[in-house]
Amino acid sequence: MLQNDLLLRTLRGEATERTPVWMMRQAGRYLPDYIKLREKYSFFERCQRPELATEITLQPVDQVGVDAAIIFSDILVVPQAMGLEVQLIEHKGPVLPDPIKTAKDLERLRIPDVEESLGYVFEALRLTKKELNGRVPLIGFAGAPWTLLCYMVQGKGSKTFDEAKAFCYTQPELAHQLLQMITDTTIAYLKAQVKAGADVIQLFDSWGGLLSPADFETFSLRYMRQIIAALKDEVLTILFAKGAWFALEEMAATGANGLGIDWCITPAMARKLAGNSVTLQGNFDPARLLSPIPEIEKTVKQMLADFGPGKHIANLGHGILPNVPVDHARAFVDTVKQYKHTN
Ligand code: CP3
């Protein structure tokens, strides 16, 4: 039994005494204790050693007071398990030295046995669940197929992911083959996360908003729909497609319990597009956490008033930035926890 199940009840659409709050990328580089661990262990060592992943997952729960834990890992462990080399280079981000460009490259990939290749994630989930001891729910996650394709084809981060798009537009059959392989792997991966104790699953489509509405349907939503359909009878789900506000109606129709939104849309407009049944999550501008604390308090209260009571999970509109002072993150969380809706 959970002592704090605000997140779960909000995702089910139930009324709660207050709005739940967590922050995307809450376990990470703005926390001094995380930075200390980074000096001793490589990024993938931190992901692969369950006791380290658990320690990092718990840091924002203990130190910032969020209403949910999200397992410390990365979306790129899936391409890694499928057979691609992934490096994380400090101050540069992910690098995949042998990206997918041709049909021949696709032959190097496999749909892995997830227990064998990603067992360390399930181990970390089990250990974290035990250490949490029912304090807050535990969120598992994966990258959406389109966002993973972006990295697998481009080979690194990019503002436009033009090479990934060119791959889809010049070799669509190959692109769909790759997207389906990622989808099949992701379904098995997320089902195993649920078995290991994840209470909620979030899909991160960080680059969904780079596509036109028609291409988003073809190269992203079609696959996310399959994943939500495979999971929705087993676990609560959240879809976060950054920048893809134009597809809120279609995303609500997938049956996901929650939809993440970024700060480039008003809560009222998002609600209008998404309809009244789904829970919305967001949408504080992560850079707004760099404002002075009184200003953070004011803008958070405005956001909560704009969403109104119920069917809202307070969060950022994208991941927390590494240069956010910890007391500013805490001010965000505390303001949500103390807020009382007037109606
Ligand atoms: O939310 C959490 O606290 C859990 C951990 C988590 C990480 N990555 C740890 C991480 C989650 C949920 C992710 C998701 C992720 N990873 C996404 C989707 C969300 C988003 O922000 O759009 C993406 C696109 C990635 C790929 C990735 N991993 C990038 C682009 C980078 C480098 C730049 C960056 O944002 O940090 C990473 C590395 C990474 N993943 C770090 C952490 C804490 C930083 C590594 C370090 O410096 O220690």
TrEMBL record:
UniProt enzyme class: lyase
One MF annotation (Gene Ontology) recorded for this entry: uroporphyrinogen decarboxylase activity
A single GO BP: protoporphyrinogen IX biosynthetic process
Main location: cytoplasm
Compartment(s) of residence: Cytoplasm
CDD domains membership: URO-D
Record-listed E.C. numbers: 4.1.1.37
Segments forming domain Uroporphyrinogen decarboxylase (URO-D): 20-29
Keywords attached to this entry: Cytoplasm, Decarboxylase, Lyase, Porphyrin biosynthesis
Pathway where it operates: Porphyrin-containing compound metabolism; protoporphyrin-IX biosynthesis; coproporphyrinogen-III from 5-aminolevulinate: step 4/4
Catalytic activity: uroporphyrinogen III + 4 H(+) = coproporphyrinogen III + 4 CO2
Residues holding substrate: R25, Q26, A27, G28, R29, F44, D74, Y151, S206, H318
Recorded GO CC terms: cytosol
Site (Transition state stabilizer): D74
Function: Catalyzes the decarboxylation of four acetate groups of uroporphyrinogen-III to yield coproporphyrinogen-III.
Oligomeric and partner information: Homodimer.
Family the entry assigns: Belongs to the uroporphyrinogen decarboxylase family.
UniProt protein name: Uroporphyrinogen decarboxylase
Gene source species: Filimonas effusa
Name of the encoding gene: hemE
